[in-house]
TrEMBL record, chain A:
Taxonomic classification: Bacteria, Pseudomonadati, Pseudomonadota, Alphaproteobacteria, Acetobacterales
EC number: 7.1.1.-
Catalytic activity of the protein: a quinone + NADH + 5 H(+)(in) = a quinol + NAD(+) + 4 H(+)(out)
GO molecular function: NADH dehydrogenase (quinone) (non-electrogenic) activity
Listed InterPro entries: NADH_UbQ_OxRdtase_su1/FPO, NADH_UbQ_OxRdtase_su1_CS
Record's protein name: NADH-quinone oxidoreductase subunit H
Family in the record: Belongs to the complex I subunit 1 family.
Membrane topology: Multi-pass membrane protein
Key words, A-Z: Cell membrane, Membrane, NAD, Oxidoreductase, Quinone, Translocase, Transmembrane, Transmembrane helix, Ubiquinone
UniProt function note: NDH-1 shuttles electrons from NADH, via FMN and iron-sulfur (Fe-S) centers, to quinones in the respiratory chain. The immediate electron acceptor for the enzyme in this species is believed to be ubiquinone. Couples the redox reaction to proton translocation (for every two electrons transferred, four hydrogen ions are translocated across the cytoplasmic membrane), and thus conserves the redox energy in a proton gradient. This subunit may bind ubiquinone.
Organism per entry: Acetobacter farinalis
Quaternary structure (record): NDH-1 is composed of 14 different subunits. Subunits NuoA, H, J, K, L, M, N constitute the membrane sector of the complex.
Domain of life: Bacteria
Automatic annotation (TrEMBL), chain B:
Gene Ontology molecular function: any one: NADH dehydrogenase (quinone) (non-electrogenic) activity
Recorded topology in the membrane: Multi-pass membrane protein
Key words, A-Z: Cell membrane, Membrane, NAD, Oxidoreductase, Quinone, Transmembrane, Transmembrane helix
EC number of this enzyme: 7.1.1.-
Gene3D superfamilies, alphabetized: NADH-ubiquinone/plastoquinone oxidoreductase chain 6, subunit NuoJ
Record carries keyword NADP: no
Transmembrane segments: 6-24, 31-50, 56-78, 90-112, 145-166
Family membership: Belongs to the complex I subunit 6 family.
Location of region: Disordered: 218-237
Protein name: NADH-quinone oxidoreductase subunit J
Taxonomic classification: Bacteria, Pseudomonadati, Pseudomonadota, Alphaproteobacteria, Acetobacterales
Compartment list: Cell membrane
Organism of derivation: Acetobacter farinalis
Described purpose of this protein according to its UniProt entry: NDH-1 shuttles electrons from NADH, via FMN and iron-sulfur (Fe-S) centers, to quinones in the respiratory chain. Couples the redox reaction to proton translocation (for every two electrons transferred, four hydrogen ions are translocated across the cytoplasmic membrane), and thus conserves the redox energy in a proton gradient.
InterPro entries found in the cross-reference section: NADH_UbQ/plastoQ_OxRdtase_su6, Nuo/plastoQ_OxRdtase_6_NuoJ
């Protein structure tokens, strides 16, 4: 049996498919229930009940929403570029899924444990802007186009600070492998020594996923619904799922870079009984809760304030922090050596 | 076998999309084909074992440069009939330039000889070194001056771009966040004690101001010219 799976091409392909399914199925269920969690948590924060009719505690609400979305008619605007119009939501959704290939859920437990994992994540998340830009253009609508342009400018701006924050983490790790990044946090999670960068990364993640208070691309009060104003039915559903999958992905990145991935908070007995993947899920859930908490708390930024924050505050701050980190590691001799985990 | 097949697929799609970039009519489609070409080039890097370069190609070119391309091209207002009119007039110049380039290509290629397979020896990195680390040690030790020079060129290009697009906006309103944060209530708020019941007129059970807004408005401001005509008619009726 092991012979078949590990040493024949067909076996390896089957194994790869199974691994992919083992990541994608929980992810899709997670996305479905994240929409419910958001509504429930926001309801609780606003002293409402939230969805409570479909199933116990409204647990079937996610499926009701999905069925409603699938049953609707797909409307394609008259002047739209058909092929690109339908391609955009597909791209957004599949990119959100693709990134999960490298996320380690345990020691070495990733679909693809590659050496440049963090660069892969950065590359995939920087591609996310295309779905939105293409959707905005192909819709042939002013609102959608403005939403798309805003989103592109916003995502490119915040990627810069995300990249610099990642560099400061990598300086302390000495490897681009996500597994090594988690293992480097055995003694202390990076959110403690790099607390300011943790906050910068979190806020940039909000901007990168177009979440409140940076949800200007949607801006329903001025742009109706932004880049997906012309979308309906399943095409809209794919955008929606893509946004939530991106939220989970960003939470996963925050957990891996700053909250110690699958590692328990302390290497002591009661904590080590809980398996690693569960710790990762707890941390992702914590980040998602904060995402929703922020949405329920803060009003939307104005666009010039958003750009100012990205370029004039976060960029210099993360640049200075990066140089300071390198200087500190150099001075104390803690700089990790080539090819080794510290 | 599989690697070869994947190589040919990537190479074929790369060449095809590169040809589409210069042949499709719609400029947005052209940029999208360019992105597809970048992607396939990254795929070729991956097959060659240069995973760091592949990821960098996607991050820098696809994730940043092409986004700005697309950004600009989407906002262009292109009239295709106008483009076709120009074709007739500019055709001779185009043919001349094309002919020169083609002649250069032929001259260059006539002296080109393929090296035999045995001659090209791929550089061997130190064992156990990822190609990220190998590239890093090479760039930051042997080629550090060239690296710094590249950085300077980019810096000059960046400053040039900023200078070219900088516009002196004298009349525009700018927000000074620090100034706003430094304000105190004493500077901006004045509490005025208003005597109750003064300058008020009772009219049909309601208390109304004695003078209308139109009488007290600042001269020259909206409303100081008197009530709008429509409202006057209504009150008259």
């Amino acid at each position: 049996m092991a012979q078949f799976f590990y040493h024949t091409l067909a076996g390896q392909i089957i194994l790869m498919l199974l691994e992919t399914l083992a990541v994608l199925v929980p992810l899709l269920i997670g996305v479905a229930y994240l929409t419910l969690m958001e509504r429930k948590v926001m309801a609780a924060m606003q002293r409402r009940r939230g969805p409570n009719v479909n199933g116990p505690f409204g647990l079937l609400q996610a499926f009701a929403d999905a069925i409603k979305m699938i049953m609707k008619e797909t409307v394609i605007p008259a002047g739209a570029n058909r092929a690109l119009f339908l391609f955009a939501p597909f791209l957004t959704f599949s990119l959100a899924m693709l990134a999960w290939a490298v996320i380690p859920t345990g020691n070495g437990l990733a679909v693809a444990d590659i050496n440049v994992g963090i660069l892969y994540l950065l590359a995939i998340s920087s591609l996310g802007v295309y779905g939105i830009l293409i959707a905005g253009w192909a819709s042939n609508s002013k609102y959608a186009f403005l939403g798309g342009l805003r989103s592109a400018a916003q995502m490119v701006s915040y990627e810069v600070s995300i990249g610099l924050v990642i560099v400061s983490v990598l300086l302390a790790v000495g490897s681009l492998n996500l597994n090594d990044i988690v293992l480097a946090q055995r003694h202390v999670w990076f959110c403690l020594p790099m607390f300011p960068m943790f906050i910068v990364f979190f806020i940039s993640a909000l901007a990168e996923t177009n979440r409140a208070p940076f949800d200007l691309p949607e801006g329903e009060s001025e742009l109706v619904a932004g880049f997906f104003v012309e979308y309906s039915s399943l095409a809209f559903g794919l955008f929606f799922l893509g946004e939530y999958a991106n939220m989970i992905l960003m939470s996963g990145m925050i957990s891996i870079l700053f909250l110690g991935g699958w590692l328990p908070p302390l290497g002591l007995a009661p904590f080590t009984w809980i398996p690693g993947p569960l710790w990762l899920i707890f941390k992702i859930l914590f980040c998602l809760f904060v995402f929703i908490w922020i949405r329920a708390t803060f009003p939307r930024f104005r666009y010039d304030q958003l750009m100012r924050l990205g370029w004039k505050v976060f960029l210099p701050l993360s640049l200075v922090w990066m140089i300071a980190t390198a200087g500190f590691l150099m001075a104390t001799g803690l700089l990790p050596q080539v090819g080794g985990v510290n | 076998m599989l690697a070869q097949l994947v190589f040919y697929v990537f190479a074929a799609v790369l060449l095809l999309s590169a040809a589409m970039v210069i042949s499709v009519r719609n400029p947005v489609h052209a940029v999208l084909f360019l992105i597809l070409a970048f992607f396939n080039a990254a795929g070729l890097f991956l097959i060659a074992g240069a995973e760091f370069l592949a990821m960098l190609l996607v991050i820098v070119y696809v994730g940043a440069v092409a986004v700005l391309f697309l950004f600009v091209v989407m906002m262009l207002d292109i009239d295709f009939t106008q483009l076709r009119e120009g074709l007739q007039r500019h055709a001779p110049i185009g043919i001349c330039v094309g002919g020169v380039l083609f002649a250069e290509l032929i001259m260059a290629l006539s002296h080109w000889t393929m090296a035999p397979a045995g001659v090209s020896v791929p550089l061997q990195a130190a064992p156990g070194l990822t190609n990220t680390a190998a590239l890093g040690t090479l760039i930051y030790t042997h080629y550090v001056l060239l690296f710094q020079a590249c950085g300077l060129v980019l810096l000059v290009a960046m400053i040039g771009a900023i200078v070219l697009t900088l516009r002196q906006t004298g009349s525009g309103r700018r927000q000074n966040i620090e100034k706003q944060h430094a304000r105190t209530p004493e500077e901006t708020l004045v509490l005025v004690r208003v005597p109750l019941g003064e300058n008020v007129l009772e009219q049909g059970g309601f208390l109304r101001p004695q003078t209308s807004y139109y009488d007290t408005a600042v001269p020259g401001s909206y409303g100081s010219t008197g009530q709008p005509a429509v409202e006057k008619e209504e009150t008259g009726a």
